[in-house]
Amino acid sequence: MPEGPSIVVFKKKIERFEGKTVTESGGYNNPFADEISGKKLVSIKTYGKYLLLDFEDFLITVHFGLFGSFLVNDSKKVNASFSLFFGDELINFYVVKIKKFGKDYEFDQELNVFSKKYRLEKTKKLLLEKYGDRKIGDVLLNQDVFPGLGNIIRNEVLFLSKIHPESTVEKIPSKKMKELLQTIKEFSKASVELIEQKIWKSSSSVYKKKEWDDQEVLEYVAPKIKRKTYVVEKVQKIY
């Protein structure tokens, strides 16, 4: 499933359609085709694992799930689940889910590390108040707290912050927690360029690696969230 930085890369690939009018909309999983057709695509934004398509009167979100993809001015042999035509140009989305929201609906950009409105302290407060007794490795995949954060980022930021994923949230020192949240922000933003260069996964420190700096990378499946976890036990401390 694409993580937040990948969605930002997707946005960059189609943002040239901003300000253009949709001459036709289609797709087998698109109940809003008639409403979208004839509308101007005012802007394209991202929130977590969603593309946000602003049509001024309403917002369409696109979620790629596990197998979603898209093509610009091209098509696959299978039918698109969602398509946007701009005269002679088009965007075809495959195996995606879309939803419609009213123009007044707002996503909490204060939790979005790619937003200028992001507030680290708000994330920290939410984390401690609602998930203090949980394991940090589990909570990092909670999209209500960390929109866009997936398993690659989860493993990498815990390693970079030297925190073991089995650590209890409320037991992590305040300074160390702030370090983790800052690392999430910085790593997520830095990942965009790595994804564009197609070296994101290969340049990871521990994700899908057998060793780091001659030390073994332990691989196991976190029991609650059922996700592969990679840990250098001599580096990452359990709190």
From TrEMBL:
The alphabetized UniProt keywords are: DNA damage, DNA repair, DNA-binding, Glycosidase, Hydrolase, Lyase, Multifunctional enzyme
| Enzymatic reactions | Hydrolysis of DNA containing ring-opened 7-methylguanine residues, releasing 2,6-diamino-4-hydroxy-5-(N-methyl)formamidopyrimidine
**PROSITE patterns listed in its UniProt record:** FPG_CAT
Indicate the segments forming the Formamidopyrimidine-DNA glycosylase catalytic domain, all copies. Answer: 2-87
* Domain of life, per lineage: Bacteria
The record's listing under InterPro entries reads: FPG_cat, FPG_N, H2TH_FPG, Ribosomal_uS13-like_H2TH
Tell me if Hydrolase is a UniProt keyword of this record: yes
Signal sequence residues: none
Recorded family membership: Belongs to the FPG family.
PANTHER family on file: FORMAMIDOPYRIMIDINE-DNA GLYCOSYLASE
Name of the protein: DNA-formamidopyrimidine glycosylase family protein
What organism does the UniProt record list as the source? Chryseobacterium gotjawalense
